[in-house]
């Protein structure tokens, strides 16, 4: 399996499956992307070598083509000079370079197609790596969210809600009793104070009435003594 095919198979791997199967999904994803980037570097080197080889073939093709044209000119010159043997030799050299140029041209077309394919694969893989990085960040956020949710669930699971509710109810009942006792005490104190004032007010009326009654008796007594006749002297 060639390098491009191996990289493509890596890129086609399901990141979600890796996350679910790995003990540490974040590290696994980081390692995966690191490996993909390393393979991308090797692929770039391979593409660079292919381009260099293509340029060499282009130079060889151009040289063979130029040489074939030069030998054709020499053959024409030999014919003009009347030297058919030299013209044949020149045409033979032209044929050799023409055949080499044709062979190089076929290989050049094949190599050009391969280089273009490698370039496309390189661009596609670079895009896939960028996509993988983006997806890794998204999965990282999802992973962190799931861990936070798990911690929250553990905290909630460790709290005995029934016990807490019972404690609140018991405390509320105590507070209600304390409030009722305080209200009753205040009410009793108010009644006792009112009773004392009522007694004071009631005692004052009786004293006044007693004094008035005594005054009336004294008036009546004085009036009775004044009405009696004077006694004779003996």
What does this protein look like?
This protein has 234 residues and is mainly alpha-helical. Helix content is 91%, strand content 0%. The protein has five helices and no strands. It has helices at residues 3-11, 15-21, 25-80, 84-158, 161-227. The longest helix has 75 residues, at 84-158. The N and C termini lie far apart (174 Å).
Helix and strand layout, with pairings?
Elements: H1 3-11, H2 15-21, H3 25-80, H4 84-158, H5 161-227
Helix pairs in contact: 1-3, 1-4, 2-3, 3-4
Share of helical residues: over 70%
Number of strands: 0
Low-confidence segments: none
Content-based structural category: mainly alpha
Main sheet characteristics: none
Q: Look at the structure and give the mean pLDDT.
A: 78
Strand content: under 5%
**N-to-C order of helices and strands:** HHHHH
Distance separating the two termini: 174 Å
Helix run count: 5
Backbone shape = rod-shaped
Rg computed from alpha carbons, rounded to a whole number of angstroms: 61 Å
What kind of assembly state do the chains in view correspond to?
A: single chain
How would you briefly describe this protein structure?
By secondary structure, the protein is mainly alpha-helical. Helix content is 91%, strand content 0%.
Features:
234 residues, mainly alpha
């Amino acid at each position: 399996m060639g390098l491009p095919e191996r990289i493509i198979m890596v890129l086609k791997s399901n990141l979600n499956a890796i996350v679910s199967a790995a003990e540490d999904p974040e590290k696994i994803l980081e390692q995966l992307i690191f490996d993909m980037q390393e393979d991308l570097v090797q692929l770039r080197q391979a593409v660079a070598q292919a381009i260099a080889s293509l340029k060499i073939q282009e130079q060889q093709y151009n040289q063979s083509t130029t040489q074939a044209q030069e030998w054709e000119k020499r053959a024409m010159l030999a014919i003009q000079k009347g030297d058919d043997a030299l013209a044949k030799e020149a045409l033979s050299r032209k044929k050799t370079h023409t055949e080499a140029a044709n062979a190089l041209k076929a290989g050049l077309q094949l190599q050009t197609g391969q280089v273009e394919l490698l370039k496309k694969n390189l661009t596609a893989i670079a895009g896939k790596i960028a996509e993988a990085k983006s997806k890794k960040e998204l999965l990282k956020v999802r992973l962190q969210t799931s861990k936070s949710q798990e911690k929250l669930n553990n905290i909630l699971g460790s709290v005995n809600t029934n016990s807490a509710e019972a404690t609140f109810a018991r405390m509320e009942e105590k507070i209600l009793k304390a409030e009722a006792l305080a209200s009753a005490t205040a009410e009793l104190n108010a009644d006792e104070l009112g009773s004392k004032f009522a007694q004071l007010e009631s005692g004052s009326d009786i004293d006044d009435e007693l004094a008035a009654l005594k005054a009336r008796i004294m008036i009546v007594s004085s009036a009775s003594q004044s009405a009696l006749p004077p006694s004779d002297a003996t």
